[in-house]
């Protein structure tokens, strides 16, 4: 989301009164004080130094004081930055000057906030017209910049919807995820792809709307399998007319809009009428449609009278970890739920975490008319107004205390509590596994970041390397990296490919994070391979002057049997682990995940190469001209053989462009 209209950006670096200290030692900030003295801390990152000196703190205070002389008494957003230029914290204020002043009153700050001030070397400000605009901008910046002291919602993928298209005479029923840039009616969100698939299948059985693409629809000359299994009425070949198909679509929309009882009652009456008229085949078809609709409702775990379109958000906190469950109700039906574990400081209480979560959760999606929450939130009215502005309609943010709405919140709270318990159990198990890994490989402490490398190619073509990352929270998929092999001589040579991948990885690490303060350096580097691959990795690190990153290789045993893996460490003979060892299973999972990622990346690159066209290499030939050329000549090969006059006769191809195309295929002529 862009800054609010007419927002004023204030000076961001070293005002005249404060030449911020560039040598301030990084410290782990834990939060920022609010106008009322509240705090907004966040978790410390691995690899960060935790203490700032008294001198650092004094310099930080002076840096902040330097901005107070020019700060207005207006709403706005502020950012605190470290010496490395990292955004440490983003906050909003009803009164910027008053809010920032709180950071200079060191005696009133807890130790964690003193560390934050000690790390701050510069600040940036944006003023807004209202506090609502400031809140909207704050949530946008937090999602984009991921400051390490804010409550962070890391897993915020878009949710799938069901779309009934509106740009074709015979609308299509399809799944949709992402921007709503196609005309039609959208229904959702659904918590998972599985929930969408169940409803899609039932809708096909009940209303028999086509799911094929418009291209397939236009090319059909006879009914497809969907017609044979009674999931489509075959409008593509005229088995149903415009009016009949429009009635099917209208019924589907009514059902998805919450008028399911009306639709089922209408079908029941039609079935009864058909039976009385001795039209038993028609009655049987209507019966099957009713059963399909009933099947959708049978998957609803909980339904609440009076709750039509609503999100239910409940938070359970224990041991410094918060689980937030989100349930989606649309048209009076439960469309599933999803659990979140936002990153935050252990000192933050549940209402504070939940409030920050709600603001970020709806930053890229519109809230329904009703949002039920399990806690009374700070700045409740402000957050409600911000949600309404973003959604374009009135949003009621309610923390019910009794009645049916409270019961559905309690149900979500129970799910949050159970998911929290499972997460803690998994974390404990993961901690034991990492401790076991440390013991196996002789590490001083359990690794917080394990990087695993593998390569994939077919006879040297489309060669890629893959890096996956794992830690205490499991697989860190946002940290995965792919490496397209650039050296043609390396493609197909596993040793040379591994050399290129590791060289590129650690040259970049040395350039971007030489002090290793960003938490991006591995505590263990695991290579999929044996003694040869390990030797290559050792050579690469030695050439780069890196001698303190633990290395290990994992190779399948005789006959490549899983369970008989051999492990290779520098200066030690190969060894194996007990086939029933949990640590062995864990290391196998890491190796298999790296293998899966590398193969998947290779396949994607190969498929892209297969779909490439020689026309893509010609400057000035975009999708429209490419399409015109292919439609006119039939293939890229025919284009390459065409003469200048033939090329210029194609719609949209001028004589100058025709000359560019001709010269591309005939460089000597």
Shape: globular
C-alpha end-to-end distance: 52 Å
What is the helix tally?
Answer: 20
Largest sheet: 7 strands, mixed
Structural class from helices and strands? alpha+beta
Mean pLDDT: 82
Low-confidence stretches: 1-51
| Number of extended strands | 19
Rg over CA atoms? 30 Å
Helical content, roughly? Answer: 40-55%
Percent range for β-strand residues: 15-25%
What does it look like?
The chain is an alpha+beta fold and 669 residues long. It has 20 helices and 19 strands. The strands form 4 sheets. Strands 13, 14, 15, 16, 17, 18 and 19 form a 7-stranded mixed sheet that branches. Strands 10-9-8-11-12 form a 5-stranded mixed sheet. Helix 1 (54-68) crosses helix 3 (111-119) and helix 14 runs parallel beside helix 15 (531-543).
TL;DR?
This protein is α+β, with helices and mostly antiparallel strands.
Q: Strands, helices and their partners?
A:
Blueprint (H helix, E strand, L loop, with lengths): L7 E2 L44 H15 L7 E6 L5 E7 L2 H6 L9 H9 L2 E6 L3 H15 L15 E5 L7 E4 L7 E4 L5 H15 L6 H6 L5 H4 L13 H15 L3 H17 L3 H19 L11 E9 L2 E10 L2 E8 L9 H12 L8 E4 L6 H12 L4 E3 L4 H39 L8 E9 L2 E11 L2 E2 L5 E4 L9 H19 L11 E5 L2 H13 L7 E5 L10 E3 L13 H29 L12 H11 L2 H6 L2 H5 L6 H11 L4
Parallel strand pairs: 8-11, 11-12, 13-17, 17-18
Antiparallel strand pairs: 1-4, 2-3, 2-4, 5-6, 5-7, 8-9, 9-10, 13-14, 14-15, 14-16, 18-19
Helix pairs in contact: 1-3, 4-12, 5-10, 8-9, 9-10, 13-16, 14-15
